[in-house]
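Dear all,

This email documents one entry for the complex benchmark we are building for the journal club exercise. For each entry we list the sequence lines for every component of the assembly. Then comes the predicted three-dimensional structure of the complex as a token string, followed by one or two observations. Please use this as the template for your own entries, and keep the labels exactly as they appear.
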Amino acid sequence: MSDEISRGFVDPEKQSLLNHHTEKHFTAGEIVRDIIIGVSDGLTVPFALAAGLSGANASSSIVITAGVAEVAAGAISMGLGGYLSAKSEADHYERELKREQEEIISVPDTEAAEVAEILAEYGVEPHEYAPVVNALRKRPEAWLDFMMKFELGLEKPDPKRALQSAFNIAFSYILGGLVPLLPYMFIPRAQDAVVASAAITIVALLIFGYAKGYFTGNKPVKSAFETALIGAVASAAAFGIAKVIHP
Amino acid sequence: MSDEISRGFVDPEKQSLLNHHTEKHFTAGEIVRDIIIGVSDGLTVPFALAAGLSGANASSSIVITAGVAEVAAGAISMGLGGYLSAKSEADHYERELKREQEEIISVPDTEAAEVAEILAEYGVEPHEYAPVVNALRKRPEAWLDFMMKFELGLEKPDPKRALQSAFNIAFSYILGGLVPLLPYMFIPRAQDAVVASAAITIVALLIFGYAKGYFTGNKPVKSAFETALIGAVASAAAFGIAKVIHP
């Protein structure tokens, strides 16, 4: 490639190869991850908020108003926030990709030295990694993929994933949040509704925690208890604080 | 190593080398990330909740009760949830590490084939990657590091980081949440307090969004406006929903 540099242009075929990259696909694992993110906070915070307000002697009407407003706000904050965050990551990836692409074209010896450095970290000697470095130099597309993954640790994000992720997280938060609020929609006295809310929410947290453990490869029973514990601690804190502020 | 396997034991020096791994250190980048996570939701949700309740004609007293209860619950959910999540990741890493360790000792040819597969993805031919594979086979510790990173994409988490991360996120959420609630503590009529709350929160969101963009390498002005936009949309939704439920 050094003669191409001195002539000042890159073989268009090589350039178009550089522009082709395999995309990371949206997997079931990512949908599960989004649901976990949404339901974890969705089941916990609205429940705790509602319990706290009940302890402060609010009516079910106020509790529902606060709860639903919080669920809406939380779903938007997590969903829209997650979407913009994913878009930023995608923009970041594109910027890093262009930069590596330029470096491969303009300073291939530096890039080759970086490959050598990566392999040398694993005790591989120059005479051992030289054939790999040369192999990569002959395939600019693969070389670019290698640098993105092994030097920068970045994978090409799927542009549709950002939007899909946002919806998954937001909907999960909403579904999670509605569970503890349901009793307040049927029981006008908040101090009565809170008991039903606590009962169904603890059960929901245990089930969700178990499923979370199962899907993430962690002990499901332990996960169930930890998840329920977070709900218990959060609601106890909310209850205590609300009682102090509004006895 | 094949003779060691047939003799049924591993050289203790090799085994102890297998037990040594460089830890991923807690960096300023991670503290920034935790602060961003906490403040993003902390500035947005309590503000929106308070604005929604103000629109539903609640008193500042109820707004503060709900707001502070939500901040407590949110901080615990995010903090404790983040901590347990990081602990699960650490446990997952340890399990995967042990499994790779066993595979390297018991089925080194399979593991060597996996290294070959990884390099072959980049168009590297067998005669080109063979010296690298052999180099790794001679260094079990480096080989293990290589498999953890390049096959599984995992890095050894710092055990202290889980706790530190949890505190950072929780504190950030609390600090973020108190900003929009402050006016309600001084202005008894919520419908008046909400104006002050909106003003200081929008400014806080713009500043935070700008800083976020700066630290994450994205356009700061764009980031400032996006962050403020999320706050505006979340509070509009909360306000609208609260007015519908509790006119």
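Observations: Confidence is low (pLDDT under 50) at residues 1-10, 13-25 of chain B. The longest helix of chain B spans residues 60-106.
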